[in-house]
Every structure is written in C-alpha cells, then in structure tokens.
Amino acid sequence: MHNYLNSPIKSVKEELDQLNKNLNKMIAADNPILYSAAEQLFIAGGKRIRPVIILNTAKFISIDKTISTEQKRLAEITEIIHTASLVHDDIIDNCDTRRGTNTVHNVFNNKIAVLAGDFLFAQSSWYLANLNNLNVVKTISKIITDFAEGEIKQGTKTFDTNMSIDEYIEKSFYKTASLLACSCKATVLLNKYSLYNNKDFYLYGKHIGLAFQIVDDILDIISTSKELGKPSGLDLKNGNLTASLIFTLSTKRKLYRLIDQEFQFKDGINEAIKMIKQTNSIQKATDLAIEHIQLAIHILKKQKSNKKNSMDLISICYYILNRFN
C-alpha cells in the first residue's frame, strides 16, 4: 500500500518536514489546556495525505517545479482545517480513539474539545486571511461551510433506510471531498503564472476525495479496530449509512429491521456486517471508488504536461484505492 505514496512523499519531503514544524507554532495558544487539546491530534500524526496532495499539485503546475511560500502555507491551513473537523467529528460520533490515540474529548471533555476545534478553525481563518488573496479566501472558506452542511445532512439521515447512493455521495462530498477539491483549486489560484485551469484541479480533488471517503467507509466494515486506530463498525453504530450498506439493503430485507432497531441488540452490528459480506456490496462500493479514481486520472492525463510530471499525482490515486492492502 505505502509504495504508492513513497514517490509523492519523497518529492515534497523537505516541505513536509517544515510543515510539521510550522503546525506546532501555528497552533500555539496562551491557554495551556487549549494548546494541549489542539496539540493532541498533531501528536497522533497521520500520513498528511492532504498536504502531500497540495504540495505535489503545486509542483505539477509550476514551470520550474517550485512551491511558493503561499502554497506551503495553504497546505498547513488545510491540515489545520482537517484536524479541526476531526475534533468535532469525534465528539459527534462519540469516538474514543483516533490513530490509536485517545481523542481530545476523551482526554479532556466535550466542552474543551468543541472549543479546541473552534480554536483551530479560527487559527486557520486568520492564516488564510493573511494570504491576501480574496479568491483563495472565498474558495477555502467554503470548506468550513461544507463541513457543517455535511454533518447536518448526516445527522438528519441517521438510521434512514431511504437514503440513496446519490445522497450518500453528496454527503461524502461535503464531509471529505470539498476539502480536497477546494484546496487543489486554491493551489492553482496561488500560482500567478499558471497556465492550468483551476476547475480541472477542483475536479481532480473532488474525485479523489470521494474515492477516499468510499474506501474509508469500506474499511470501517472490513477492518479491525487495531488496523483502523479507532473502533470498527462505528458508522453502523452511529446510523451512518454507507455505500456497502445501501447496496446490501436491496437484497437483505432483514437488514431493515436491524437498522430500525438502531442496532440496540448486542450482536446487531456483527449480524449486519455478516450480511454485507455475504453479498457483492463491498465490491460494488469498491467499483464506485474506482470510477472516481479513473475520472481523477483522466483529468490529469489531459493536462498539457510531460507524463513524468503527473506520475506523483497519479500514484496518490493508486494509493487511495489500495488502502485495503
């Protein structure tokens, strides 16, 4: 799995090392509780997949393969926004661990965690304003609106067996793909001399973001808690209907009853997972992710650039699909 990420990470290693150093400075707060709450998630790490995508996009569209200071700052802002959304997500989903580490609300409490998330959103907005680029501010501000809209859409559709695949894709766009779509677009907007169309890169980010979320939701069903670094089956438990589950509903009528009971019985979730695995629903969900990855690769291949230049961005596509292994 990680082989696909080797080249994209190596390509921007210096920038990523600097990004990790900068993030700690950027979230500095006078209040020690607020600081340690915000720091909690940065300690947990993660692959920094979003900055890897932004920095490689910046390199791809640059004439001399350089990444501007503003684009590096954008990568940092995006990671702060993403982290803020995770803090709030974990409270909503009542998730006690993430990346194998206790979540902020678990270490402190819900109130502190909400404030820590708000603090991170506020910090990202301040750094965003300092980029002094109105188009970029408008583009990135939309992500924060979309996060809220995604959470509300998810919240109003819990345990709703009428949810369609289209509604699932729409919710996944708001919750995950918007961040990548808007930040890829903003990366192009920050290059004054770019000959590339920012709409193309918006679509590239959108499709890899949707594929990422679909794969994430499949992993929630087929992986162990240890592999995920957070509890498995959490989507089911919280009533978030994902692609595999929606596809299974058409063949396993008993699943309706389990969802209507909101998995209140001990074996309900295991039973539902067993049903999903008995059908071809996981394959159908995987095919859906493949479709979005193919669209992303198609966008890259139509760009007027030499093939070698686009290999890192294409490798990221393959990494997203191969997270099962």
From TrEMBL:
GO terms for molecular function: metal ion binding; prenyltransferase activity. The keyword Plastid applies. GO terms for biological process: isoprenoid biosynthetic process; quinone biosynthetic process. PROSITE patterns: POLYPRENYL_SYNTHASE_1, POLYPRENYL_SYNTHASE_2. Its cofactor is Mg(2+). It comes from the Eukaryota. Coiled coil: none annotated. InterPro entries: Isoprenoid_synthase_dom_sf (IPR008949), Polyprenyl_synt (IPR000092), Polyprenyl_synt_CS (IPR033749). Keywords: Chloroplast, Isoprene biosynthesis, Magnesium, Metal-binding, Plastid, Transferase. Belongs to the FPP/GGPP synthase family. NCBIfam families: prenyl_cyano (TIGR02749). This is Prenyl transferase. It comes from Vertebrata isogona. The lineage of its organism: Eukaryota, Rhodophyta, Florideophyceae, Rhodymeniophycidae, Ceramiales.
